[in-house]
Amino acid sequence: MSAKDPDSAFTFFSQGALIQEFKVAGHNIVQSFPEARFYKTHNDVYLGETIGRTTNRVKGAGVKNLNGRNYKLAINDGDNPNSLHGGFRGWGKKDFEGPKPVNRNDKEGVRFRYISKDGEENYPGTVECLVWYTAGIEDGKTVLEIEYQVELIGNECEETVVGVTNHSYFQVNPGAPTTEGTVVTLGTNEYLELDPNQIPTGQISVSPWVPPAGEAFKLGATEPVIDDCFVMDREAPTSCPLDTRSLPLRTLATISHPNTGLHLEIQSTEPAFQFYTADGLYLPEAETDKGVKIPARDKRSGIAIEPSRYVNCVGREEWRGMCKLRKGQLWGARSAYRAWKE
Description:
This protein has helices at about 40, 235-240; strands spanning about 1-5, 10-15, 20-25, 25-30, 50, 55-60, 60-65, 70, 85, 95-105, 105-115, 125-140, 140-150, 160, 165, 170, 185, 190-195, 200-205, 215-220, 225-230, 250-255, 260-270, 270-275, 285, 295, 305-310, 325, 330-340. The chain is mainly β. β25 and β26 (about 295) form a beta hairpin. It is globular, with a radius of gyration of 19 Å.
């Protein structure tokens, strides 16, 4: 899909409706593999994937008091007893229908569709997930917009839980082994404090690793190490609509690198976002069908910025209004990625 500029283009794969290429001024700013098959064999880190049926961690890999019963989910969070990114084979590992060319909001785009059956990864209810990508050039910037919609279409139950985001790893100094030297500005420095199992305690605090909102900081070769959920809206548990698409976009983060002059701004209607310096990232070496070797990539070779609801809103009943989807309702979210070269 083109953004009407030969040096700006996007490529998507049907597995996970994932982003394989986000090209700006001739540079691909997402970590990727050149062939779709590698995403099935070399991608334990959710590279470019659409994450679902829920995002991030669910405490104790369980959902209590939903449809009048409890649900046990997959434990797949390393040494922690949690469920992560939808389970062993979340939506990022599933083949979506698409890409189907569409015109949405007067913009060129593509649509992906996935039907998640009742009981998949032990989540209740059959749901339909729609993902739209639209592209364009605005004020000289390459713009990719993402829109998500989920609907409970089955009759197996009255309610389920949902969360969707994208898990691309961005690198605005393409070809470099790490993100060292990347300049970052976040839209907030408030985050959800974590317990020893990486689950929010419920306390919102000022991050000791991030300066106040709007102030830039630089990533080093090994520090800071960040894998936290940052809060844009403190009142989200009581005020966040299930479908946030009608809300205005807010700037979550901007990143840039002085070596390339490449910039990326990430906006969303979501009340929070995960910022991950990818200290657990590893992509093994691969070889294409034509014998071209793709070198391994190690920790801190990209940055993940994932718009979302609060982590563990599935497992925390006072936060569950952000993610509980009932019959007749729509869950929705919208994000925009604006990139340019100075």
